Amino acid sequence: MNETIEGILSHYSVREFTKEALTKSEIELLVKSAQAASTSSFVQAYSIIGVTDTKLRQELSAIAGNQDYVVQTGQFFVFVADLSRHHEIGKARGVETNSLSSMERLLVATVDATLAAQNMAIAAESMGFGICYIGGIRNDLAKVSELLHIPDYATPLFGLTIGHPKANSEPKPRLATALVYHENHFQSKTMDDFKMYDDTIRDYYAARTGGKRVEGWTDQIERGLKHPTRKDLKDFLASKNLGTK
Amino acid sequence: MNETIEGILSHYSVREFTKEALTKSEIELLVKSAQAASTSSFVQAYSIIGVTDTKLRQELSAIAGNQDYVVQTGQFFVFVADLSRHHEIGKARGVETNSLSSMERLLVATVDATLAAQNMAIAAESMGFGICYIGGIRNDLAKVSELLHIPDYATPLFGLTIGHPKANSEPKPRLATALVYHENHFQSKTMDDFKMYDDTIRDYYAARTGGKRVEGWTDQIERGLKHPTRKDLKDFLASKNLGTK
Q1: Domain Nitroreductase, which positions (chains A, B) (predicted)?
Q2: Which of A123, A165, A224, B238 has the greatest number of beta carbons closer than 10 A?
Q3: Whole-angstrom Cα distance, residue A92 to residue A98?
Q4: Which of B174, B194, B241 to mutate to test the interface with A (most CBs of A within 10 A)?
């Protein structure tokens, strides 16, 4: 097994960082790594905002549910699905830009932004940094967009916090490969298939909380279904001319 | 610069592979690498189909616009945004599953699938394989879903072909970092900002085609706007109960 795969397989999310900021050259290398990712038909439909301003970070942290590691971290990045450059080009060339509001384009921009983000995450971990994705900014994308001056035909998707970790941890066990990987045809799963994994996750939480947290994976998923979040996302995207067609 | 970042920065898409199939243990390592990626609130909302059947590959290749490297490759993977496991759990527990049709859940599943895919891509390249994403399967997702038996609350997103490359190439120049990376606030771009990059891309194509292809990046984007594709994606997703709320 090579160094790259060893790094990939030892990933865990880090939620406590020192105050040390990333250097300019570290940030440049991370952004270059992000940009090297594949991009659908070469459209490069994403942007990255590096948030250095402490007040901005505090406001973003509040939106994300008071996650301190948005404020105290090496650098906080926001990944943006961004079709605004394409809109600008269409306008300048007098070409109809309606299609930028299609679901196809929203998915393309989301995939492009995510490919870039994961390149950055892997690069960061290979440099010894810890990382954590912050989906919590989607709790109020209108406010995030206002804070970061996001234009039409673009939307923030998630944050990525990267910094010097205060402590080490270990990978969290994933679903058994047989539950995720299918050969030639999709094989639907039933509750029985998740039993063993529920035990694994129950043990994992118990070991990390001294027995206080008793929850399997299916319990977590059930909880998520009972408390749906971010119900206004479709309307917000429509307000940015995204995903309506 | 470490080995992992060197690999990330030297990425290029490969479109010609030898006939040699990936071994079972190579595929296992790639899927494990994919699964190690971050996942939103631990929902693991994706599945991966490994397509080994030649007839299936031929049908997928035809849908993607007759891309031979879907058929002759080491392994062809299809990445699926997959909330069907969550639907199964909700059903079994008697919990309302309406929220799985929200735009939030569609984006979460798309992001999860893409994080996993990019882990696999980087792992594959570190092993010496070439890779190419195949967005072309979105030309007819209804047909792809039928071929691969994709259930409700799930949709194929893209393919990823991985194999032994027939030849080496070099990275394609990306947008200048200043056009993609913003500090604290998004800075909108105008056509003037793209001029230098248009020259770079024109030179890149000219050098690779003996002067036959004369096209800047903005010309490519303009062409894409003039010929919108996959207009039925929103309706297809709705037929799978995705992205409607």
Answers
A1: 8-164
A2: A123
A3: 14
A4: B174
pLDDT at residue number A214: 92
3-state secondary structure (DSSP) of residue A108? helix
| pLDDT (tens digit per residue) in B130-170 | 999 999 999 999 999 999 999 999 999 999 999 999 999 99
Q: Which residues contact B23 (CB under 8 A, 6 or more apart)?
A: none
Structural contact between residues B7 and B124, judged by C-beta atoms closer than 8 angstroms: no
For residue B235, give how far its alpha carbon lies from the nearest alpha carbon of chain A (Å). Answer: 9
- Which two three-digit tokens encode residue B228? 């919108």
C-alpha distance from B43 to closest chain A C-alpha (Å): 7
CB contact under 8 A, A49 and B97: no
Q: How many CB atoms lie within 10 A of CB A206?
A: 14
- Kindly write down the DSSP assignment for every residue of B151-182, as one continuous string: -TTEEEEEEEEEE-BSS---PPPPPPHHHHEE
Are the CB atoms for B149 and A185 separated by under 8 Å?
A: yes
Q: What is the mean pLDDT of residues A152-166?
A: 98
- Give the pLDDT mean for A54-73: 97
Question: Do B222 and A93 lie within an 8 Å CB cutoff?
Answer: yes
Task: Compare all CA atoms of chain B with the CA of A146 and give the residue at the minimum distance.
Answer: B185
Domains assigned to chain B: 3-170 (3.40.109.10), 172-245 (no CATH)
**Across all residues in chain A, what is the average pLDDT?**
97
Closest CA to A9 of A170, A143, A128, A154: A170
Distance in angstroms (rounded) separating the CA atoms of residues A111 and A89: 21
H-state helical runs in chain B: 3-9, 24-35, 54-63, 84-93, 103-126, 141-148, 177-180, 191-209, 217-226, 233-239
- Split at pLDDT 50, 70, 90, the class of B1 is confident
Which of left, alpha, beta for B219 (phi over 0: left; psi -120 to 50: alpha)?
alpha
The DSSP element (H or E) to which A156 belongs, if any, is strand A154-163
Inter-chain CB proximity B119 and A122 less than 8 Å: yes
Instruction: Name beta bridge partners: B75.
Output: B162
